[in-house]
Amino acid sequence: MTTTILSPAEIQQHRAETNGTAKVIHFNNAGSSLPPDVVTNTVIAYLQEEATYGGYETEAKYQRQLDNTYDLIARLINAHRDEVAIVESASVGWGLVFNGIDFKPGDEIITSEMEYVTNLMGFLNAKKNHDVIFKVVPNDDEGNFSMQGLEDAITPKTKLIAITQVPSTAGGMIPVAEIGKVARAHGILYLVDACQSAGQLPVDVEEIGCDMLSVTGRKYLRAPRGTGFLYVRKTVQDQLKLILIDSHSADWVSETEFKPRNDARRFELYEKNRGLTLGLGKAIEYALNIGIDRIWKRIQYLADTMRNSLRQIGGVNVHDFGPEQCGIVTFSVAELDGAAVKSKLKEQGINVSLAKAISTLIYMNKNHLEGIVRASVHYYNTEEEIEAMCEVLRSMLSALTD
Q1: Which CATH topology does 8-34+291-401 take?
Q2: Cβ-proximal residues to 256 (8 Å cutoff; 6+ apart), any chain
Q3: Which part of the chain is CATH 3.90.1150.10?
């Protein structure tokens, strides 16, 4: 793949193909990105055809394009199409495989202090229902995931390593490929939450070495809300119990027997929004045509620009850490509540998010952080938009001293 940077002309083209960029400055891409117009138009056109000609009939007409979504996902993450299931969200996908693991009393789960709240709730639920133990690997003195801490936490009872690659409330990243090598060496199941990763940076399940990976569509993939997908390695599929079953996920063998499908679509149910599925495919195709490596370089450049600009503003504290940082920028403004900062920016047509402590509670509690501001860039953002946000922040701080 080419590693050239996105040219100014290309950036303007992508902005022209994204209606929302003319309306707002959108720094909430880690929440939900602005979709390309082709994605929105694809979904609307499909729904209109359903309403005109019928749901089953429209599905039959677009069956090839619907099936191609699996191929696009497989290309995106370097998997086989038989290892891909389309689901409504990363949380749904994550929950289907996590709860499909045959946990026994005393089994151990290892995670990081950056793990997302929904996943932590899943661990607690497994502890309650199956008497499992979950261990949190603390960050090292530099604030990074400790590989030695991971090795020290592993015992013969370790059943699963579950890691979120890009944390929700910090700009750092977890070394998922290095963790994968450890998981493989010990023969431990490995589940990666790539909710914030896919569409932002290259995600290669073979390089990562994970057995399962969950992704949402609405974030950096720029797909519609209510879309996502799940990767389950072929050799692992039979190890997982099916949580939900219908005539799509399994074959009816006899009146007393059924057999799960021989691919990852065993984790799907038949009924889903076909229009959104097409929209997900269009969004992935759009990203692949640009080049994920090129998107990643642009995002890193913009995020570095934003962090450097914020650090030059007296009274602004940037909280990101780690040797490699992503498109999520977290910061706080002296004497101002994070919610108030978000609200003031919103008044000026600038979207950011409030990173609440509950999202990554272990990390936030450890660092005595509550609600901090999260600004997340995408390749269609510009340096001028970053400066506009910084100007608003400077005005807010200046007003405090007046």
Answers
A1: Aspartate Aminotransferase, domain 1 (3.90.1150)
A2: none
A3: 8-34+291-401
Task: Say which CATH topology domain 40-289 has.
Answer: Aspartate Aminotransferase; domain 2 (3.40.640)
> Which residue shows structure tokens 């940076």?
201
For the chain, give every residue range classified as CATH 3.40.640.10: 40-289
Written as six digits, the tokens of 143 are 């604030």
Q: Please tell me whether residue 257 adopts helix, strand or coil conformation.
A: strand
Q: Which residues are CB-neighbours of 74 under 8 A, at least 6 positions away?
A: 80, 81, 83, 84
**Among 186, 143, 129, CA closest to 161:** 186
> What is the mean pLDDT of each successive set of 10 residues along the chain, which is 402 residues long?
78 98 97 98 98 98 98 98 96 96 97 90 95 93 89 97 92 95 97 97 98 97 97 97 92 90 95 96 98 97 97 93 91 90 96 81 74 94 98 91 70
- Cβ distance 395 to 315 under 8 Å? no
